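OP here, attaching both records as promised.
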Amino acid sequence: MREAGKSETGSAPGLPGEPGVEDLAQAADRLFYAMRRSRAATVGQYAAGLSLAQLALLTPLAEGAGDEGLPVGRLAAHAEVSVPTATRMLKQLEGKNVVTRRRSPQDERQVLIRLTQEGAEHLAVMQAQLRARQYAALSQFTPQERHVLAAQLHRLAGVISETTPRPAGPAADEG
């Protein structure tokens, strides 16, 4: 007897039954949720109280925003949130002394964001904890397995990006 909601080939209802695709989709989902739980556990252990979304929003600032800072729109695009959502999050982070916000001297319509020293320290500690957790898990693979897995994950990320519809509008240019 077949499982409810699945076709004879094990694929989702209404989708072609390409061999192994459903198993791969389930494995990808399982990986996504395991990584999310791991990140949430790390975030929950750290007193700074940065959420996963805030962490994603701030990462480009730690990767070299320079003295000027980065525009809200670029941070929003990186975190895959709307500019208004990013603006609300950044106002909260400004209140916690994690970032500073100021108008661009070249374009008054643009708001530039910079990490404070305290914000940079919080972010560095959280990123180090996340990376240590990843290293602990990934070191269980042989060097050859890691190489093959990395190549396949990069390929999978590219394929997913190529097949993901792009949002309409100039969201990345705002802010």
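Record two, same layout:
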Amino acid sequence: MDTQTLISFASSLLSAAAVVLVAIIETRNGQSRKRTEARAARRAEESRLSMEMMFATCKLATVTAKAVTGHKTNGDVEDALEESDRAQGQYEDFKTQLAAQQVAKV
């Protein structure tokens, strides 16, 4: 082999190695981006459920205040309890889903 052929071969190898390295980096970046997006989706869902639970708690507190001060609560108590149960059930489902996803990763 002459020097020119050797230099050309080495140059081709370096180019190929660079292409492979870029492909590996892009794959890892894509995987990282997917994990970040999944985490953001979980945080958004948890925030939404937390807000629903706060709303249910506020409703229960309002009904309790009405009852303590002697105001008529009519169907407020049942409505507040149903809202609270619904919000708690959704949050428990969310936690169960997260736990199942974590187990499935293992």
